[in-house]
């Protein structure tokens, strides 16, 4: 029998970016398939190809053994493919049945009037068939997010979808709603529907899917049966090993504590607690790494440290001073450099040229100002030197940031932040999207900064990167450090376990003398000196 | 010989269109002129059409060949509109200089009006409108650049004007009644206007920053509050004795901004325009060459990057609205000290026109001057059309609206430019692969291929 969906060698190129590189994917009818991968791995692009939002550059889409070419989602829907986006597309003040039939209303009076009774009945019938507990007359704005998601699913089913694509369906749900969603999956597949869902969370994929395909950097790393794979293996597949790196150990013992985080609790934008009591210390001449699968609270932890987010509890101290009332600008002035996670939203003003971007964050710094005046000549020569040192291509400081490729944008930000002469460098994913040569250069510079006695806090989802660069390595899962380990002695398997949320027995790993609160004990620091 | 000419013309048109397709400053000006031309063309037919419907004893214009008569002469309307705004430097020679037998149409010839001086009343009106709109246009522009929609420049202008009138009248006895005293009073008056408008603008700024109130709503509402509170205050407290309208006492003659060269009846003073130009250049320098201006611009264009770079978003909002209000308030001061000599209830809609001026200028201070001048010309010219022709004022209003409508849609002309001319740089730039980019880029290339084929 033909698979319900067969993607055959899909390649999708955007100017300067290959989002999908020769991806094959086959999904059996009546199964649940998880598409797993980090942010930017190309999952959503691949599904947008299947849903007709993008046309593939190469490759073909085969539905039920029949090659198809979709010009628009309408074609995909006609072929029985429905997609539920991460952000619901519902008209909130309208009733559920109105939302479901919107655009495909059953009509009476020769098309002049919506046949409300027929529509309501159709929705009620669909809802009953799949065991959805949905009242067709409720208004969308009055029902929970979980029910709204079902309305989206009903919309797709009403249009005759046999294959349902869900983009990060659990991102907006409470744990109970997630369980209910899994039940819905079961009900749907029992009746012959096929489900593909996108996720970057391991536990979801192993829990709900029959098969899992892992994407990394736009490539299919492998499709595995859920029963044959462990979470650790999946974690490794997701983060991968791209650059083999020589570990360069710190030559000098770490000095005074620069950054001291204690019992930090933070919420995300929706008010859900995603950092639950994290403590860490970063010293002069030390790289403290944080590993873990994306979305486990790293972003919020880092934003709380750099001053972009107000923590709900706990303290952040810099050089022994509490930063509670210290503004973001003051933190920059005191010597905190920060390579942000989202370079296009935060790190660069996309419509400005590199000269203007060279002063982002130091526009009030004496280095570039005479009183109130900003000296663009000095900004230009600074931009020039960053471009030169960090090999930003093309070397044109008058070109707008948006005209550079992602990797070159990143190099410019890294250069600007490193050249700030900071005491602490907070680097999140410093080499994401950067080519191998530049990656090595950035790594070298990070190591140099450490030798100069700077403190470095490094967050990366690339295991080999954090392992090779860090002097101490914390693994974050679900808002907590599951362990702080010595990167020289820890094994991949152990890291995989920690990333999957398990803790290690004390005797299985050589902890860096970590106390219960995640701080190194005095002896730990000494050990490292001798190491 | 005749073969090469179409090619050369075509190349020139293509190069012109290619510039339309770009984004920077020069093509904005080109686009503005193309828009002006197209609006005149469309307006031409509107005047003809309404001239056909209207009733009149003798036709103002007869269409060649067909012999159809029209009540309004479209050539005359547009000639008077632009010529009248300058006070009539040109006049039309009687047709017939060229022998009608040689040409199907007898072309009119322009002659320079002997004795014309730029310092006339009609041109003064144009300049006065331009000057006032420079201030309100700058006011709206600075808020826009910070990502704020200040619809409240009108209210800020009303408050600034009232404060200027009251302060100058109250302080006048303290200063000598001569040039020196006048200059001091004018300085104090403008300062009072800036403070009044600034504070009035700071209110919606603070409400936005600290109470999350949408500035569009608050500024609109504060317009009503300003207008009505000012009215009641003047009516009940500050009304000049014996005045038939609701107005404050007159500002003493020596404390008004008077003209140097223009006739005193024209209500325009060169010094006021000078203050406007200084504000304009000052705002440009502030935005482009100071740290605070940089904060403000980044906040407007990419708030997350501003936050990352340490900009205090709340403070910047209040600052931008205060500056915006202060510029509107100075507009009010100039209106009092240059045009009216007192605060009167019938304040023109300068603040609202400022919104259009700012958008026409692309929210760039340097663009505010030509945009304000266009408004000034249309205002001054429309009055002259009313005086010199039988065309009803409503029709002139339609023509004004049409011109602004076309000038305000540069994207339309850019689109035409892109469709007709292959557009190399855009297609390769593409950016980060958002769906729209890729599609748009290829479409432009495809169309280009057709055009050159």
TrEMBL record, chain A:
Primary residence: membrane
Matching PROSITE patterns: ABC_TRANSPORTER_1, ABC_TRANSPORTER_2
Key words, A-Z: ATP-binding, Cell membrane, Membrane, Nucleotide-binding, Repeat, Translocase, Transport
Lipid bilayer topology: Peripheral membrane protein
Record's GO cellular component terms: plasma membrane
MF GO annotations: ATP binding; ATP hydrolysis activity
SUPFAM superfamilies named in the record: P-loop containing nucleoside triphosphate hydrolases (SSF52540)
Location of this chain's protein in the cell: Cell membrane
InterPro entries noted in UniProt: AAA+_ATPase (IPR003593), ABC_carbohydrate_import_ATPase (IPR050107), ABC_transporter-like_ATP-bd (IPR003439), ABC_transporter-like_CS (IPR017871), P-loop_NTPase (IPR027417)
Annotated region (Disordered), positions in chain: 507-531
Entry's transmembrane regions: none
Biased composition (Basic and acidic residues): 509-520
Domain ABC transporter: 5-242, 259-503
Protein name: ABC transporter
Organism: Halorubrum aidingense JCM 13560
UniProtKB/TrEMBL annotation, chain B:
Ranges of biased composition (kind: Basic and acidic residues): 424-437
Transmembrane in keyword set: yes
Origin superkingdom: Archaea
Residue ranges, annotated region (Disordered): 424-453
Recorded topology in the membrane: Multi-pass membrane protein
MF terms (GO), sorted A to Z: transmembrane transporter activity
Keywords: Cell membrane, Membrane, Transmembrane, Transmembrane helix
Entry's Gene Ontology cellular component terms: plasma membrane
Signal peptide: none
Compartmental location: Cell membrane
Record flagged with keyword Cell membrane: yes
Residues spanning the membrane: 29-48, 122-144, 156-175, 181-203, 215-234, 268-287
PANTHER family, per database record: ABC TRANSPORTER, PERMEASE PROTEIN (PTHR47089), GUANOSINE ABC TRANSPORTER PERMEASE PROTEIN NUPP (PTHR47089:SF1)
Protein name from the UniProt record: Inner-membrane translocator
Organism listed in the record: Halorubrum aidingense JCM 13560
């Amino acid at each position: 029998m033909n698979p319900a969906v067969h993607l055959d060698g899909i390649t999708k190129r955007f100017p300067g970016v290959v989002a999908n590189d020769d991806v094959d994917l086959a999904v059996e009818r009546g199964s649940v398939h998880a598409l797993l991968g980090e942010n930017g791995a190309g999952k959503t692009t691949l599904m947008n190809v299947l849903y007709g939002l993008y046309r593939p550059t190469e490759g073909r889409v085969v539905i039920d053994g029949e090659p198809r070419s979709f010009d628009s989602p309408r074609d995909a829907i006609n072929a029985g493919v429905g997609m539920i986006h991460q952000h619901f597309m519902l008209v909130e003040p309208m009733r559920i049945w109105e939302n479901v039939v919107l655009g495909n209303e059953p009509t009476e009076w020769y098309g002049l009037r919506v046949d409300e009774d027929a529509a309501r009945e159709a929705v009620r019938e669909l809802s009953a068939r799949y065991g959805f507990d949905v009242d067709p007359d409720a208004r969308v704005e009055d029902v929970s997010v979980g029910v709204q998601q079902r309305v989206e699913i009903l919309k797709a089913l009403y249009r005759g979808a046999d294959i349902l694509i869900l983009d990060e369906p659990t991102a907006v749900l409470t744990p109970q709603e997630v369980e209910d969603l899994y039940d819905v999956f079961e009900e749907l597949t029992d009746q012959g529907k096929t489900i593909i869902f996108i996720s970057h969370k391991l536990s979801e994929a192993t829990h709900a899917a029959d098969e899992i395909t892992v994407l990394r950097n736009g490539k299919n790393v492998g499709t595995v049966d859920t029963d044959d794979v462990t979470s650790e293996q999946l974690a490794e597949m997701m983060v991968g090993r791209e650059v083999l790196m020589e570990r360069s150990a710190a030559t000098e013992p770490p000095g005074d504590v620069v950054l001291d985080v204690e019992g930090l609790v933070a919420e995300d934008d929706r008010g859900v607690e995603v950092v639950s009591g994290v403590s860490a210390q970063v010293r002069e001449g030390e790289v403290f790494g944080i590993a873990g699968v994306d979305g486990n609270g790293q972003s919020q932890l880092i934003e709380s440290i750099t001053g972009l987010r107000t923590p709900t509890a706990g303290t952040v101290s810099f050089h022994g001073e509490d930063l509670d009332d210290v503004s973001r600008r003051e933190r920059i002035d005191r010597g905190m450099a920060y390579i942000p996670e989202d370079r296009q939203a935060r790190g660069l003003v996309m419509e400005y040229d590199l000269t203007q971007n060279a002063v982002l964050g130091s526009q009030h710094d004496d280095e570039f100002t005479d009183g109130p005046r900003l000296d663009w000549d000095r900004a230009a020569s600074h931009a020039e030197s960053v471009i030169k040192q960090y090999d930003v291509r093309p070397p044109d400081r008058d070109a707008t940031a948006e005209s550079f490729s992602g990797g070159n944008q990143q190099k410019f930000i890294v250069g600007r932040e490193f050249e700030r002469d900071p005491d602490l460098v907070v680097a999140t994913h410093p080499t994401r999207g950067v080519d191998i040569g530049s990656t090595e250069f950035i790594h070298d510079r990070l190591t140099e900064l450490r030798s100069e006695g700077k403190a470095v806090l490094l967050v990366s989802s690339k295991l080999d990167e954090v392992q090779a660069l860090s002097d101490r390595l914390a693994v974050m899962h679900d808002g907590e450090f599951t362990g702080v380990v010595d990167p020289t002695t820890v094994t991949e398997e152990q890291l995989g376990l920690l990333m999957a949320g398990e803790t290690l027995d004390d005797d299985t790993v050589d902890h860096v003398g970590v106390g219960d609160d995640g701080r190194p004990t005095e002896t730990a620091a000494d050990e490292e000196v001798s190491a | 010989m005749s073969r090469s000419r179409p090619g050369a013309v075509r190349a020139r048109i293509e190069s012109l269109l290619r510039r339309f397709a770009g984004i920077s400053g020069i093509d904005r000006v080109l686009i503005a002129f193309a828009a002006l031309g197209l609006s005149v063309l469309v307006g031409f037919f509107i005047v003809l059409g309404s001239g056909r419907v209207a009733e009149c004893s003798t036709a103002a214009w007869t269409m060649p060949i067909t012999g159809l008569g029209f009540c309004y002469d479209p050539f005359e309307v547009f000639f008077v509109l632009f010529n009248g705004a300058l006070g009539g430097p040109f006049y039309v020679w009687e047709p017939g200089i060229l022998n009608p037998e040689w040409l199907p149409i007898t072309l009119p010839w322009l002659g320079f009006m002997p004795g014309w001086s730029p310092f006339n009343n009609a041109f003064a009106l144009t300049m006065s409108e331009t000057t006032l709109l420079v201030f309100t246009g700058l006011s709206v522009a600075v808020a826009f650049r910070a990502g704020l929609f200040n619809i409240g420049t009108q209210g800020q202008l009303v408050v600034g004007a009232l404060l200027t009138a009251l302060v100058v009248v109250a302080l006048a006895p303290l200063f000598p009644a001569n040039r020196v005293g006048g200059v001091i009073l004018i300085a104090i008056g403008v300062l009072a206007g800036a403070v009044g408008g600034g504070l009035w603008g700071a209110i919606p700024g603070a409400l936005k920053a600290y109470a999350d109130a949408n500035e569009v709503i608050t500024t609109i509402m504060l317009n009503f509050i300003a207008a009505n509170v000012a009215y009641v205050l003047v009516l009940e407290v500050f009304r000049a004795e014996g005045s038939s309208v609701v107005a404050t006492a007159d500002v003493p003659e020596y404390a008004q901004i008077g003209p140097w060269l223009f006739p005193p009846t024209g209500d325009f003073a060169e010094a006021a325009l000078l203050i406007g130009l200084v504000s304009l250049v000052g705002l440009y320098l502030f935005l482009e060459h100071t740290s605070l201006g940089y904060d403000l611009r980044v906040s407007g264009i990419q708030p997350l990057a501003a936050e990352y770079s340490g900009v205090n978003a709340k403070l910047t909002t209040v600052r931008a609205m205060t500056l915006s209000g202060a510029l509107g308030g100075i507009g009010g001061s100039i209106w009092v000290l240059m045009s009216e000599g007192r605060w009167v209830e019938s304040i023109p809609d300068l603040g609202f026109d400022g919104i259009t001026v700012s958008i026409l200028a692309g929210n760039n201070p340097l663009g505010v001057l030509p945009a304000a001048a266009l408004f000034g010309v249309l205002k001054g010219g429309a009055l002259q059309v009313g005086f010199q022709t039988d065309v009803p004022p409503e029709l002139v209003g339609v023509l004004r609206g049409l011109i602004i409508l076309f000038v305000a849609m540069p994207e339309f002309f850019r689109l035409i430019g892109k469709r007709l001319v292959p557009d190399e740089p855009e297609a390769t730039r593409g950016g980060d692969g958002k769906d729209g980019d890729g599609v748009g880029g290829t479409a432009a290339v495809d169309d280009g291929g057709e055009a050159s084929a």
